[in-house]
Amino acid sequence: MNPDKNKPIGFMDSGLGGISVLREAVKLMPEENFVYYGDSANVPYGNKPREEIRRLTFRVVDRLLEYDIKGLAIACNTATSAAVKDLRIMYPDLPLVGIEPAIKPAIEQSRGGRILVMATPMTIKQEKFRHLLETYGEGHEVVSVPCDGLVSFVENCMFDQELLNVYFKKHLSPFLTDNTESIVLGCTHYPFLKSNILEFLRTKHKRENIVLIDGSFGTARELKRRLREKDLLKETTGIPGHVEIINSSSDSEMVEKSYALLNMPEI
Ligand code: DGL
Q: Of 20, 67, 164, 196, whose CB has the highest number of CB atoms within 10 Å?
């Protein structure tokens, strides 16, 4: 047997958001061991210059490599757009997946209406995002919604509907039209706000039929595919693996909050 199969899988994000991808990976590969690094000491990445995001991402990846990981998920749209190309060059033998806003699935499901893409200002500014829009968006109404500051709600596990309504009214409402059919959650923190977004749409806009789409399952599935391709999936034992969470913040509660999000019931 290939001994590398027993090594853990690394996950990184600027903070707690990547847990939304990790939980899909745990469901898909329950026997694997995972090491998750949240860089909450430096969150948010989404309004920092690209160079700084690259530097921070490389540092986190270095830390994860100390755990002798067999594969890596950059579970952060912002870090993926800023650094994934370089990481693939730096670690050509490491199975590595990034995440990008799920514009392609949104277009595949489209009924011809407007598609909103909520993401960090940095993700929206990147060449990678423009390329995604050019590749899949032609003939469709795809509109970017920069969500500066939304990540902080999740980092603080602050899911108060009234407060979030104030945020959404200012940042989301101006983009909502009668023909809006879906919203892509283009930042890994946002899936934890799904029920808050749906509640806002229902109560403030009388909209019950807008679909929320995110790339977490697709990314976890791709990670599994890459590991299988290299014969790195664990042998079937029926024994559940474990998840180790590390966080760069000096606030010791961040790790506790991370496990709480990992176990948060999904809608
Ligand atoms: N979770 C990250 C993403 O997917 C970004 C959050 C941040 O701004 O740090 O884009």
A: 20
